[in-house]
Specification:
There is one protein chain. The protein is mostly beta strands. The chain folds into 2 domains: 89 residues, no CATH class; 110 residues, Mannose-Binding Protein A, Chain A (Roll), CATH 3.10.100. It has 3 helices and 15 strands. Strands 3, 5, 6, 7 and 8 form a 5-stranded antiparallel beta sheet that branches. Strands 12-11-13-14 form a 4-stranded antiparallel beta sheet, with no helix packed on it. 12% of the residues are buried. It comes from Caenorhabditis briggsae. This is Protein CBG24172.
Length: 221
């Protein structure tokens, strides 16, 4: 933002529109930038403090969520503030929900698999009586953990999600789960009592009609 004394002119620039600002000792002009710093509750005394952040919102036209990262630094040689920004990234379509993780943004969507029932009519009746909101999740039991009770929690499973943190804390298991040393896949269950959580189940044909939706993810592009 640039403000000129003696007038009401105030120019506001979007991320990416300005790449650098040269220090100017003209007291008739002033510019400022805003950064978020959770470690410091007060504003810094100097004006050369840098930082980084991101821009995150939903595009009103397409309904797709937008992510753009940026950083601010001060170059003492050129006496300039440097503004760097990434390209705008979006989820594939409005059905995806973007989540901001430590390793970067990640888009998730629940996709149904309606062809499963038609592929084998023997299980169509069972599928119709099953709660359709039970969903397959990413996660397959590691070969070394099959029949090995020492493997506990998420450490017993292999995940294809490249943006998953090293020690994920968001896996909300059903009580006493995971409990099967041979149950090789993960699902999200909506329980009869209204609660919900993650469970490990066998990846069998019988279960294909019980859980007929998938939680899928991909990075924004």
């Amino acid at each position: 933002m640039i403000y000129e004394f003696g007038s009401t002119v105030c120019q506001v620039f979007e991320i990416g529109e300005v790449t650098s600002v040269k220090r100017n000792n003209d007291i008739g002009k002033r510019f400022g930038y805003k950064i978020a710093d959770s470690k410091n509750p007060t504003c810094p005394g100097g004006d050369t403090v840098g930082g980084e952040g991101h821009y995150f919102e939903t595009n009103e036209t397409s309904g797709r969520q937008i992510y753009q990262s940026y950083s601010i630094s001060y170059d003492t040689i050129s006496e300039s503030w440097i503004f760097n920004s990434s390209a705008i990234r979006m989820c594939l379509n409005e059905r995806f929900k973007m989540f901001l993780r430590e390793k970067g943004p990640w888009c998730l969507v629940v996709m149904s698999s309606l062809t499963i029932v038609s592929e084998d009519h023997r299980y169509s009746e069972r599928a119709n009586d099953t709660n359709k909101s039970n969903v397959w999740l990413d996660g397959v039991r590691k070969p070394e953990c099959i029949g090995n009770s020492s493997c506990q929690g998420v450490n017993a499973f292999f995940f294809t999600d490249p943006f998953l943190s090293e020690n994920p804390t968001g896996f909300l298991w059903n009580p006493n789960q995971p409990n099967g040393i041979s149950n090789d896949c993960l699902v999200w269950r909506n329980n009869p009592d209204g609660s919900s959580g993650i469970d490990d189940v066998p990846n069998t044909v019988d279960n294909l009609t019980c859980f007929n939706a998938y939680m899928c993810g991909q990075p924004p592009t």
